[in-house]
Amino acid sequence: MTTPLVEMRDMQKSFGGIKAVDHVTIDLYPGEVVGVLGHNGAGKSVLMKMLSGALPRDGGEIFINGQKAGINNPRDARNHQIETIYQYLALADNLDAASNLFLGRELTTPLGFVDDALMEAETRKIMKRLNPNFRRFHTPVSGLSGGQRQSVAIARAVYFNAKILIMDEPTAALGVQETRMVAELIEQLKSEGIGIFLIDHDIHQVKAMCDRANVMKNGQLVGTVKVADVSEDDLLGMIIAGKCPPSGIPGPGAIQFA
Amino acid sequence: MTETSPATSVPAKPRNFFAALELDTRLIGMIGAFVVICLIFNFLTDGRFMTPRNIFNLSIQTASVAIMATGMVFVIVTRNIDLSVGSLLATCSAVMAMTQTVVTPEWLGLGLNHPLTMPIAILVGVMTGLVIGAFHGWLIGYLTIPAFIVTLGGFLVWRNVSWHLTKGQTIGPLDENFQLFGGINGTLGETWSWIFAGLAILASFYALFRSRRNKVLHEFPVKPVWAEAIIGLIIAGAIVGFVAILNSYEIPRARLQRMFEARGEIMPEGFVQGYGLPISVLVLIVIAIIMTVVAQRTRLGRYIFATGGNPEAAALAGINTRLLTVKVFAIMGVLCAISAVVASSRQTFHSNDIGTLDELRVIAAAVIGGTALAGGMGTIYGAILGALIMQSLQSGMAMVGVDAPYQNMVVGSVLVLAVFIDIVYRRRTGDKT
Q1: Which of A245, B65, B67, B126 is 20 to 30 A off residue B56, Cα-Cα?
Q2: Are the CB atoms for B189 and B272 separated by under 8 Å?
Q3: Would you call the peptide bond into A250 cis, given omega within 30 degrees of 0 as the criterion?
Q4: How far is CA B156 from the centre of its chain?
Q5: Which of A31, A12, A56 is nearest to A164 (CA)?
Q6: Which of A76, A94, A135, A152 to mutate to test the interface with B (most CBs of B within 10 A)?
Q7: CA distance A28 to B313
Q8: Alpha-carbon span A12 to A160, nearest angstrom
Q9: With an 8 Å Cβ cutoff, are B318 and A74 in contact?
Q10: What number is the average pLDDT over the span B137-161?
Q11: Average pLDDT over residues A1-11
């Protein structure tokens, strides 16, 4: 078996006395889309934020390509080519598309000043590939539609050659057309060998886009299933009741049948 | 609003003359407001408001608040506030005054008016401002105490630290070289003012040319050449006009005579010399340019605006927003120290009440200049124009003979009105506040 792209072993995170993530172990292979499902407060976002460096972990280890990786802040995650696309948080509304795309990694002139013209040119190039309708390069992104904003966030991940992509409900704020665009983009990225963690509420979406799914409940892993082997009802049963279907690999959070 | 534009417009072509210039409408609006204020006061004072003498005075009165206002833009853009700038100015001023009247002449044995006194005093003052500002930033960024509280505390602490240091005494007269930053005692003179104007025009032409060449290089649309030329001419005209006015403010005969006597020369008959650009205004111009470059052309500036627009996004992009807060307040502290140089040398001594209420003037200047308290928005030139508008209102009303209470009532109302106009403007143009 090949080494997984990402392996998160025994991850733990508590807030006060509440165990938000309780000894969770999951993995991700190249060219694979893995869903992370669960109710609000199940711990899926917290788990992913530990991978993206946004939250420090209390315990557990992260392996990237079999190598132990010390990810303690967003910069570390970026150095491991992990990019995150958040539902709402990702963009600074008052800046334009190019400034957002290069935020934290600005292109500079030899004298060390930010090179806005070059960044805009690069942004135009990549947007031509991802979203040819995108034309508003000089307005703050607050003036853009949800889909346009999301394409800026995705462009950021693509431009910097992400190997591992975390998408936190990437289509939640989007219309039908725009959702299709994002779904096509995910297919395309997958075919390029990128591994994607997809956090989502929408069971249809997960059935359509994911290869495997991890379900979490109350901070614990209910189980990991191959999406093709289970029905939507099975997935719902895992999310709501914590019942792992026979074809799946049960986790510590699965209810036991005595 | 003309009805002809939709029918005749071609997407790539600018709609009309003004659109082709691609001017910043907000900047035009502020300059327009300033001009209107000047014209009204000029009318009410029978032409005394727009004399070279008054314009000269206005520029040196504005310098101290305007210098701090540029820093306040960064503070407010990052969703913070600094209520301590007036008190910090007082502490820096006290430290510098004591350095040049006690430390260098007595402890270091340099005597009075030694050439090294001025640089030493300024260095000590700037370090004081830097350290105190950075300390404020650390309390706010790392200990997560709200900026309002930290600087409200600082407002009380530093005002009284300065009192304690000087035991409440007025310290003066200050070093002669130090006093050059005060305005009337330190000007470039006519020749150097014209040289400065020439350099400024060359620099702005070069900047326009660079920006255009950069756009052409990346095949972006550019303005028509005639539009660039007009903008260049406007800039050059403004610089020449400003310097010409300051140069035409003539040094009084008696003062000139004293200057010649001090050099051991005899003043020629009919000799006339203008003051030219005050050094304090030159300092303001240099700071305005540096701060604008920082805001628009450096990573630090980009991160300041990104953090103001969305702190979470900035943190997720790997920006250390805590350290950024320290840097922003450290810059503010340094600017308070520079303002302290200008303010104390203008009155030729350090007084206990120096900088009182400056925090409010500085915040008002930044806000009138279009800095949004919600963060993420603001410009350096706006803050300076804001300071200028406030100062013209204040001194204009004083010249007209408006009683002190009415003056402050007007300034206060203008502040609220300016912010309201700004909100309406942003709603119209579709920007979010």
Answers
A1: B126
A2: no
A3: no
A4: 24
A5: A31
A6: A94
A7: 25
A8: 29
A9: yes
A10: 96
A11: 86
- Give pTM, 2 decimals: 0.87
Distance CA A197, CA A123 (A): 25
What tokens appear for B234 in the block? 């406007």
What domains sit in chain A, N to C, each tagged with a CATH number? 1-81+162-258 (3.40.50.300), 90-161 (no CATH)
The mean pLDDT of chain B is 89
Residues of B with CB below 8 A from A112's CB?
298
Contacts of B427 in chain A (CB under 8 A): none
Residues with Cβ within 8 Å of residue B226, at least 6 apart in sequence: none
Answer yes or no: are the C-beta atoms of B247 and B231 closer than 8 Å: no
Q: How far apart are CA B216 and CA B223, in angstroms?
A: 10
What domains, with CATH codes, occur in chain B? Answer: 14-186+278-429 (1.10.3470)
The tokens describing A181, both together, are: 């665009």
Query: What is the SS3 assignment for A94?
Result: coil
pLDDT at B138 over 50: yes
Helix (H, G, I), strand (E, B) or coil at A81: coil
- Residues A93, B309: C-beta atoms closer than 8 Å: yes
Sign of the CA dihedral A98, A104, A105, A111? Answer: positive
What is the residue type of B103?
V
Per-residue tokens: A192: 């390029």
Closest CB to B317: pick one of A104, A117, A140.
A104
Cβ A63 vs Cβ A69: under 8 Å: yes
As given in the structure block, the two tokens for residue B2 are 């003309």
Contact flag B310-A93 (C-beta cutoff 8 Å): yes
Residue B419 Cα distances to A221, B358, B370, B373, B430, angstroms: 52, 19, 7, 10, 16
Q: Which pair of tokens denotes residue A101?
A: 């795309």
Higher pLDDT, A172 or B314: B314
ipTM of the shown complex: 0.82
How far apart CA A187 and CA A237 sit, in angstroms, is: 27
Q: Distance between CA B97 and CA B172 in Å, rounded?
A: 7
For residue A59, give the amino acid letter. Answer: G
Token pair listed for B380: 């350096």
> What residues in A contact B428, CB-CB < 8 Å?
none
CB pairs under 8 A between A and B: 88
